[in-house]
Design goal:
heterodimer, A: Uridine Diphospho-n-acetylenolpyruvylglucosamine Reductase, domain 2, Uridine Diphospho-n-acetylenolpyruvylglucosamine Reductase, domain 3, Enolase-like, domain 1, 3 domains, five-stranded antiparallel β-sheet, 13 helices, 14 strands, 36% helix, 23% strand, B: alpha+beta, Aldehyde Oxidoreductase, domain 3, Aldehyde Oxidoreductase, domain 4, seven-stranded mixed β-sheet, five-stranded mixed β-sheet, 21 helices
Amino acid sequence: MMNKPFEYFAPKSAGEAVSLLKKHGSSARLLAGGQSLVPLMNLGLAAPRQIIDLTRIKKKKDPLSYVTANNDSLMIGSMTTHSEVERSRLIRKHCLILSETAATIADVQVRNRGTIGGSVCHADPAGDYLAPLVAIDAEFRAINSRMKGRTISADKFFRDMFTTALKQDELLTEIRVPRQNRPRRGSAYVKHKYVEGGFAIVGAAAVVSLNKDGSCDRVSVVLSGVRATPLRLGEIEKGFHGKSLDERAIEEAGQLAYEEVREPLSDIHATSDYRREMSRIYTKRAIRLAAARAGARETKKKEEG
Amino acid sequence: MKRRYIGQSVQRFRDPFFVTGKGKFVADVYLPGMLHAAILRSPYAYAKINSINTKKASKHPGVVAVMTGIEAAKLSKPIPFMYSPTGFGSKTADVYGLATDRARYVGEPVAAVVAVNKLVAYEALELVEVDYTPLTPVVDAERALEPGSPLVYEPWGDNLLLKMSFRGGDVDRAFKEADYVIKDSLKSHRYTGVPIEPRAYVADYDQANGKLTLYATTQQPHPLRTTLAAALDISENNIHVIQPDVGGAFGVKTPPYQEEILLPILAISTGKPVKWVEERRENFLAGGHAREMVHHFEVAFNRDGRVVGLREKMIADTGAPSPLIGWGMAFVGAIHIPGVYKIENVEVESLMVVTNKAPWNAYRGYGKENSNLLMERCMDLVARKLGISPIETRLKNFVQPQEFPFKQVSGQVLDSGDYPKVLNRLLQMSEYDELREERERLRRQGKYVGIGVVFEVAPGGACLPDSYITGYDGTTVRVAPTGKVTVLTGITSPGTGNETMIGQVVADELGTSIGDVSVIQGDTDKCPYGLGNFSDRSTIVGASSAMLAAKDIREKMLKVAASMLEASPEDLDIEESRIFVKGVPSKFLKFADVSQAIYRRPYDCAIDIEPGLEATRYFRTLNATHIPDEQGRISTYPSYPNMAHLAFVEVDGETGEVKILKYAAVHDCGFVMNPMMVEGQLHGGIVQGIGGALYENLVYDDSGQLLTTTFMDYPIPTSMEVPRIEVASHETKSPFTPYGTKGVGESGPVGAPSVLISAVEDALSSLGVKITELPLTPNKVWELIRDAKTKTKVR
């Protein structure tokens, strides 16, 4: 039961939204799809004094929900819903991992309302978008109350549990992701959950690029659910250049993940030990799938077998 | 009598309403001038309530009343226990609508606010200031039994609510002479039914007439009325309890809850109707828990697989003392040992312990799931030890078909059944031999796959001594002059559709169309005094009392029709709303011709009958007795529906996830009144069992805080986790009910956890994994695998 009164604002433009943010300071919260904020308010875990509803911003004048592309990147409006991310042809073609991620979020009802911007700004450590966005080097575009824009890289965006790099008067307007459908590149997001729609115990995003000879050019793995913020596994990134990404290498990558994930989060669903082991398992699964998509022969065979 | 409806998959009457969102639930009740209540609950597992300051809350605009426990206790007597302590020899405690001097679990109601709307009531809740002195809680049953443990209810001097035991045969000798003895333990965790509709009440007190009306999400409108009369000191004939549509009950809506007494108090003291609709969090905190038991057991058996002796000590963590019937689950769990097996030398001790956790309430299975866990565990352990098939241990130890009615060592009398046939039919249906080959094939690929087969008995129709949980119910059949039939019955529906089944019975017994039959339930001013919904009883006592009443009406109508047709009543029959002379179908009267004649022609063709066309009949179930036998034993369950379960699972060796590849079951509920509804019941019951075994867990921390108060933390299985469940019925009619029905409502959750333990252990048998504890969450199963692998390495 939501029992704290709050003021409700429905700005018609992004500019109006940021000036409201500036005016009300930290007691105000932006309402996007409401799939995290509203449950938190219902549970009494959040009690903003002002709600600034972004859903009434005029779509034609000031769009925040869109997917466009240029030569290098996709531009996704922050108010784009998970369902739209899941189904967008552009995203499916150029950044499959993101569609794949959106499809694993909660249930259909949540995906129809929840937005990618709302989700990343909420910055739940178990949030699904976090790991893949960091893995594919996404960029976050924000405007402030003076209508000045800035770009924040994914590595710097997630600061702590439920905390981002956005300043008090900043509004996330767009997420830019580099096109992923390059030759010999594959990416994947795999998630360990107990029931359909459940939060990730561990989520693993992997991006694999292969050289022409089939050896590994680069492999990036980012985990969510294990730390307050997405964890980029640096040792793996360093370790496989020029090597063959065979089962033994993947096993080795899993071990590196296990070693790098020391004392992960622990809760009633998963002990620290379990999360650490799942980091190994899901790192392996993500790399295997990404490598297969990149066209690695040996792993592909294994996947099919 | 020709059966047109009985035995058919008749569409449920309420389905069109439910699936189009037109059901009428308590939350849909709006009365003029209605106020809303919010309940402040204890944040401590155990605390002394020193004082409550309501000044600020009372001054909050829109607040009409603020009530503390001390004030509420002045307006009622302690809530009567649903089971009389004299019937069981248990202790009782004084529990009121709100906690008075002490709060004994997190979530216990301590104060209430009544306001003009829900929002204001919840706002004001935060202004109520309670001065608590936190006390050291005890949150573990075995610890609670140790000397020096904190006392949950000090006047008792200990934390033991009740200890019951029974013994049959010569247990010591059996253990001495047996070829083998296994000693082990098994723990079931705390979980519960989570109805999608939480609890809700609207209380309305008509001061001018002194009449109290309570709309309630309850499974027992009449016993709730009786309880309210005693607690509130209102004449019972001035209380009206109405149960509108219910969105799932599963036992956890069995009265009396503290809130059920509190709401009438709030309505009486404000003079206005007051509504309270529970939040999900509150439902988790205080809506009735179940299942948490530890079994310490020893089983004695011979080389041939025959079990000759069993010793069991069960310790049940029943939570804080409560007038609810939850603790009875540890009693019922005990008396259903050894279940379907013929074991002559048995010793059972059941300890019902109170702790600073939420009180238990009834949950589908009602303790029989715990007897089942124990018995099926024993059968698997014996098979493993002897290296024989687990099917064989069961077949060897079953009570045999020719032995019914069979008196068990606890005094319970198994009514009927053919356990070997039910089990064999399951093996056939699930292609068990092929499945075993499939298992070997998959194992050769390195997969951890396993098969579990268990047998369940889910006794029904409970007749517990000196209680409103007993074996009768009543039905009124009323025919209007136009021939339309109204049925008023004391059994209630938790949303499952038993009103349709009652309609099938009445329509067939009267020979009329089911479309002309309307069934009314859940209203104490309309229906005969009945005990509502629990323990499979609608097809046992509900159908039977409806049949008796309908037969009376039929007889009366035939008598009048006979005089109208100038025939003898014995020569008449009724079919499709026509009363005709047997063999001469052209010589007939319409059903309504006769009903009208009874109302309009009392001085000619209806002169030989008593006017009116209404009958009320009660049915008391056979096969139960409260008169102790020579060994002092009574028999409290008349009906033994049973089921064989098979699960084929794959365990992910890396993550510990359990995936059910196949699930099949063959059930014997005696005569099947409505095959579609039976199938639905079995699916639902099995899914709840799967949920309990694999996902659901009410977790308390050491300070007694419940950590699982949302569906994020208490996952229930979705359609994505549940496999296709193949079910079939094998009918062995009960000789003790008119139609041979045995009931079905509690079947499924009893055996499903057992079969999953069995299957998962089989899947991990190459690692030597042993399961001693539920639930089998991925984390837990992974730990079992890890520990087994470490052990192997050490060796």
